[in-house]
Specification:
Strand order of the largest sheet: 6-7-1-8-11
Largest sheet: 5 strands, mixed
Strand content: 15-25%
Radius of gyration: 25 Å
Number of strands: 13
Distance between the termini: 44 Å
């Protein structure tokens, strides 16, 4: 899998590029004029204390926290799937593009490289400066070939895409063996930190208040995407359970009870 960030560059390109992209896709003049009116003719001024700068025209970027902004983004990248699909599978979610290919031979590697070339060509055509340092390569499987390399031809220079053992996607730390071991440890450590914050800042707690804090600050860390990682090894299950055991001992009135009784009380 090769991961490419897209949204970072989309939010900063010139308005004329966005309008041109919709004209090339043969949108109706009414739609194009509507889009142009939405993103252009905006001005901004900078305030420092009680002083204001002169007004300047906004020539790039998309208005934040708007309904139309994400829609324009989807329309803009719509043809990226068609251009890369003939070489490899491509998945777009939020601000990331991911190229996938089941590698069984050298020909499959070349196809995936062609997909990378096509994606980079697309970004070049639309004046998007791809940050190659944020692009990553990772292979999933037990006996995978990690010697294969993929590159981006940037300004007549071939730049290798960094290969990693783990990659963070949508807040989940994914490793090449899909064991989610590092991700589980990361969430457990965050849960312990939340417990520390509760213990440090709340000296007098009743059971109802602590239950509410624990579910929102501690349990939420352990439950996030639990259906994806689905711990099955005994050591991982015990490590997760240990967090809850420690949490139920924070309340003095429950500290001397058995673990099962502490859970029932909460």
């Amino acid at each position: 899998m090769i991961k490419f960030p897209i949204l970072d560059y989309y939010l900063n390109f010139f308005h004329t590029v966005l309008v041109t992209s919709h004209m090339r896709r043969r949108r109706s003049n009414l739609v194009i004029n509507w889009i142009q009116d939405f993103i252009t003719s905006r001005r901004y001024s900078l305030r420092v204390n009680l002083s204001y700068s002169l007004w300047s025209w906004v020539t790039s970027g998309i208005p934040q926290v708007s309904v139309l902004g994400p829609i324009l983004f989807l329309l803009f990248i719509n043809d990226l799937i068609e251009r890369c699909a003939m070489y490899s599978e491509i998945y777009l979610f939020a601000d990331d593009a991911k190229l996938f290919k089941h590698i069984l031979s050298v020909n499959d590697q070349e196809k995936l490289q062609d997909g990378v070339d096509e994606l980079y060509k697309w970004t070049t055509e639309w004046l998007l400066n791809l940050n190659i340092s944020k692009c990553k390569v990772i292979s999933f499987g037990r006996n995978v070939d990690t010697t294969s390399t993929y590159e981006i031809s940037d300004k007549d220079t071939d730049v290798l895409i960094e290969r990693v053992d783990t990659i963070r996607d949508l807040g989940i730390l994914i490793d090449e063996k899909l064991s989610f071991k590092e991700y589980s440890h990361d969430k457990i450590n965050k849960a312990y930190r939340m417990l520390g914050l509760i213990k440090q800042n709340f000296k007098y707690l009743v059971t109802e208040s602590f239950t509410l804090l624990s579910k929102n600050m501690v349990r939420s860390q352990l439950d996030y995407c639990s259906s994806v990682r689905s711990p099955y090894r005994k050591c991982d299950i015990e490590a997760l359970e240990k967090v809850q055991k420690k949490a139920t001992k924070i309340l003095p009135q429950l500290k001397n009870l058995k673990y099962e009784d502490r859970l029932k009380s909460m």
